User: What shape does this take?
Amino acid sequence: MAYTRKNVRALKRGERRRFVDALLEVKRRGEYDEFVRTHIAHYAPDGEHQLRSAHMAPSFLPWHRKFLLELERALRRVDGSVTVPYWDWTRDRAIDALPWTDDLLGGNGRRSDRQVMNGPFAYREGRWKITDGVTEVPYLTRDLGRARHPVRLSTARDLESALADPVYDSPPWDSTVTRGFRNKLEGWGTGPGRSAWRNHNRVHQWVGGVMVGGASVNDPAFWLVHAFVDLQWTRWQLRHPGHRYLPAEPPGRGDAQHGRIVARHERLPPWDVTPAALEDLSGIYRYV
Assistant: This one.
């Protein structure tokens, strides 16, 4: 029987506690940092001439679907009642509202160094030390809203602009694509600075701190953001039932993307699974 992933605002107090406790236990066991290292290893921009599986490519959505599922399995080995909740950033937009509460993710970083000082993942609580990533400090950092250079969270209208596109992705299958659901949701746009961040990318920038860059998994907020991203893929699939993951076939020799992206039936590193196999996981989980 499929289990459910809930909106974080629907979690009862006990559900919040069990989710947090399971995350802390996965961290204590050393498993969590493996997830951080995996994301860093596969965070390859399209300016580098190598295979891209996690970002700036069609496989952004199936890669993170599988990644999220693997984290959820680790949590459920600790507590079988736990699932990953999602944060609907189009509705819960305040820096002092869910999920930024003392009993869930904790709040914003302090002004001096952006260190998160409250909640279960605060460094001073002694259970969340950052050991892998682009920063040398061992503590979790956030800069919600980027007060010095404000960033606006993406809106329901922004999401709709992605959901309305019936094409999954299109050539050249990278961060420059202007047509297709995948990049409109992932959020690589044109233009200078923050104007180029859309949807998923804009949310990472809004949270700030360690959520900016390949080591973003160091912030547990990562999972709530990506559960909501995964929900958008599910919604897109329901809205456009005749459309599937693209490309169906790998780009041929002579194509600039040859060997650099994953086609529908190709293996999706680092797992032995294809994007096609990840298009429908409704037998495992569903959203409410």
In short: The chain has one domain: 3-94+155-287.
